[in-house]
């Protein structure tokens, strides 16, 4: 059924049309602006772009409140502009994924308006109602502190409606076969317009049973199979990337034991432990999370991310671990959100230290799966903590030192462009970094290129090689008789490590440095010994005999280090 597993070795770039590039000068990013920036994305080397919601919406939750699934929000352009964009992407070999937000609609959606007005309307049963206030109305809020309840009274309907998220986002009754059919229709529509799949919002809530008497929602996993089948009948290489922050025990239910449900899922378990590892220089819980999420069907894939457009959710860590991450990366109350996370961007959390940013990104790129990066992180953009909730990390892309960072000609951008101070567009922007070979932008471009050349990470099996130092993580990947090996030092001080690759014979003797010229030969004890600088990282290919034979040739080459800062 699947005719291409492109997502197994890809790099996905997430962006919001609203804040990427404004072509018409009204202060809001648009499809024409994004289309002009396709060469930038192509140059960066990403394989796919994931667009956050751009359908018609009153924008009370940054587009995650859709009022028409078949229309572009006029602020971003027209359907024609969208098709021009997907065409331009295709010309450059870039795939397009889009958000699919079907757990709920906006209250402004005509379906909801009709449903509340007319109890006999077919749309009444598209939502979830209760005559009386359900007992658990004050439980299960996703945005604690901001959201007061999950059931709100509607005067017109004379009933309470259920909303897992904000009260302006009534949940669709996804058990209703008509609603399910509509979801497929929405997918079919966008697939026809050239997208390669969907990042599906809030999957556990879509498939969970809903109603006033439901205390523990039951997942209807079959729904996921229906989505996949439909998509692949329409277009064999389209995928579903699920947002499902669930426990490792249930992962296989989401992927499907026969690989017949979600193609990809974000690895929230690894993400949270990765931040703990960065905060504490203790990689053991991260290794545990990697092992707990190791099994997946051959065609399934993890999406590995650092930060996304939401808060960094630390809800799955142990209390002590969570406090350690708060202390390191978000010590002040206004940096935290919803009693569980940190709302800052990556670069400010890591103090803008390029060595540390490279380390974090290198780790992300070498975790089992496909990296999903967020616009602006390639230049180390900052945040604006004066903006409410998650908006602080959603400010416009900083293209240049021109007014408004080159994002818009308007002096009233949709969200303020970060200006002044260490994160201001005046000196932190893509144009400046392009000219500097050692910049984070150029480093990111190089690491993306190299990541695509090590398909072992996306396709292969990993093994963690034990060292005595919990600050140092050594991972090996094997695929089709090739092996690669990665070393990361999460501590800020140099470490000496010794390890055995586990590959016997001549083949495992030499580790060929993929980012520099520090090739590593086995010592007399049969191990590889390395002194690695603070926040250092190494990517090696486990060399074969041919490398040993060409050894002298390698040695005599001038120093061509690939710009490893601190290395
Ligand atoms: C998850 C999205 O990532 C978030 O931004 C949004 O607010 C909720 N789902 C509701 O759609």
TrEMBL record:
Residues 14-435 form the Glycosyl hydrolase family 13 catalytic domain. SUPFAM superfamilies: (Trans)glycosidases, Glycosyl hydrolase domain. InterPro entries: GH, GH13_cat_dom, Glyco_hydro_b, O16G_dom_2, SupH-like_C. It holds the Pfam family SupH-like_C. Signal peptide: none annotated. This is Alpha-amylase family protein. It comes from Rhodoplanes tepidamans (Rhodoplanes cryptolactis).
